[in-house]
Amino acid sequence: MTKCKYILSLCFVFFLGTLPIQAAKYKALKKVKNGVTLTGQIVYDGTAPAPRMLKVDKDTDTCGSNRPSEELLVSSSGGIKNAVVSIVGIKKGKKWGIPKKFSYDQNRCRFVPHVLLVRPKSKGVVLNSDNVGHNFHTVSKGIYNINKKIKPNAKMKVKKKKIKKPGIIRVKCDLHSWMGGWWIAAETPYTELSDESGKFSISDIPPGKYKLRIWQEKLGEIVQDLVIKAGESQNLTIKIK
After folding, report:
1. What is the pLDDT of residue 21?
2. Distance CA 79, CA 117 (A)
């Protein structure tokens, strides 16, 4: 199996809305024929800005003190964490790796994890591990919108099919203004989050012509052409200006 390596330098087009949705419904196969793996790293091109400091001005006994924002996390090597990497245009492919049930926490007045991948129409639970109440508030374009108080050390259920379709869901707490997070309802299993070093890996890709989409909450979204050839794995280094 051959392996090709590409280095791309890109500028993000700032866009914070729902991710484009595939026209055809996705079908999971028992086995992907000639499946290929795409690996890579999302890298900040240049000197990354220092994290913005968030002012913690309420319930400090529980929430702690001022803290750096998680909106753009760049490692010492320049890798960007929590970039959403997805391949658009695959109608038939591998089974879902994202679980049908999810858990999302509020701990020390912080959403954990900061960015969560979920499946559309999946069910889950939103925890409050704090001894203070939170107001769980989601904002999206018709995907999942709720505004509900969660008592200290309590939880809220997300019923099946309430997350109606793929896209971006912003999460906030109206009682603690610095709290912010994101849910990404993936349209197919070919969606991954970059790790602490900005690296990602997407396996079992059927050969074909697709779009590679990268979304990051601070920088926005880009879409570019992607050609997957049988027997030719690819490794991408994507430098973002």
Report:
1. 47
2. 20
